[in-house]
Specification:
By secondary structure, this protein is α+β, with helices and mostly antiparallel strands. The chain is 27% helix and 32% strand.
Length: 628
Amino acid sequence: MTSLLSRIVETSGDASIPFAVIRRHESDLVDVLTGGIVDVDKLADIPLDGSRSGRDVLVLVPFRQVRERGFAATDDGAPLRCLLVEERETVSLHEALAALPEAEVPIESLGFDTTDEDYAEIVRRVVRDEIGRGEGANFVIRRSFRGTTPVSPATAVLAWMRTLLLSEQGAYWTFAVHSPGHSLVGATPERHVSVRDGLVTMNPISGTFRHPAGGPTAGGVLKFLSDVKESDELFMVVDEEMKMMSSVCPAGGRILGPYLKQMSRLSHTEYLLEGRTDSDLRDILRATMFAPTVTGSPMENACAVIERHERGGRGYYSGVLALFESRTDESGAVSYELDAPILIRTAHLDGDGLVTVSAGATLVRLSTPEGEVAETHAKASGILAALGLIPPVPLPPATDLNAQPGVAEALAERNHQLASFWIRSQEWEQHPPFAGSTALVIDCEDQFTEMLAHQLRHLGLRTSVARWDSVADVSGPDLVVFGPGPGDPREVNNVRLETVRSHLLSRLDLGRPLLAVCLSHQILSMLAGLPVEALPVPRQGVRLQTDVFGTRAALGFYNTFTSIAERGQLVTPRLNLDISAEDGVVMALRGAGVASVQGHLESVLSSDGLAILERLVASAFARDKAPV
């Protein structure tokens, strides 16, 4: 009997049926799927059949779908496409290689849509105007290589997949997907999210070691692992994905790793994040759109920055492939598991023969234009070589970098900078200090508030989170926490900042306990009569040892602006708040019913964050002057 894969190859002309061919997790097995195509409007519309005949569904999620979260995205019309699986088989990798076509696929190169010089200028502009003005800690800006081919899309992606299976290593998924007008092939290193038996796993990958022509060495990888920029990149994306984990997992998430992921031409550092949930898989997919490794942080503002600096829409680049696999238990009940890799290191082929390969660099405060241009070339090189768009570079004999002396120790050393709260198993305290009290956390467009809320719950507070524009009254909760967010707190005629300022004034007038963090701390400082200035160098994703009212603490910082105190100044001109400052930079404030802090106590970088949070909340409660 002819295999399903052979039938797909034999009919891979212009009238080919929709299909997907997938090798997962470096397995010796390859899955082959065919079925009908359904396009839907929203993730909630993905047709998961809960009957006894539940079937698998493979979903192509374009970047524009992030608008479901209310975030900015250019609408390029890329469909939210579902392959409803009707036939499925699993073959060995050897069988797959034998069946996949060895056909040559000619491509006429059209080059990058953004020149190296223009991309370098974008890097300068984003570092100066976005990071330098407090809009966020890091942003991923893409550029795209384009070409054309006369070969049918189905034949092309099958042939290219065969090349990738032979030439790439370390991929999370290697895949070819074909549907009318939209075909994809790639070898992506990164899982976005998976859910199995209620266990949610995310896999932030960041930091890129470009292998030299002669092959990677122990010295080269150790130098990479000691690079501050590379480690900062990874910590920032871990923070961003922990925000997502805290929003979908009631007990929060736990960090495992770090690990070194070695591929053919590049190596990356990565962590695994785990937590438990009982949410609908489609809701989890929606709440985690999209990975900060391909967007930036904070997520909402990153999407706006992308729209300002990129040309056109992203199509499926930085979206996900989402495989919903049905499982039937002994009683006949159907449930689903989810496995969703990120669509990077991927080529898109439309119905007119246009081939697009997108790659992006993570821009941070320490970025250099030359370095980020080189990174886009390196990230695109594997797929471009597989497509024949650039000459293939012979790979030197494989070297297992994880086995090299000092690598394990260098990886383990990174965790010394992280908060144990997010690394160890989070068991709830028997007698939490604020049991029975209530808290409202106001989200100022940075989901760090989800991590803050999780820590407050750990301390016993019954905590809810509300976006700044959905809060009507701040009088009810025992504690109101004003969260962090992007932007310059001095900006006038900004509705978000004016609303936060108004809520702060209302809570101050009530004399009820409040805590302000980062951006809100700066706004409170201004209300208290302190000036706010831009830092000479942004502290975006920086871990510092600092003093918080006599207690030394290691905290993570994500700020471009800071409030300033004069030498020897101990009390604010207004509101009578005590000042904790270092070299004129105000680290914290406290007073009757009031506490604030510049650092992010909830960040994975804040080794002492939970202890300082408990102290500040206790201070606000102890000095509550609310009328009886």
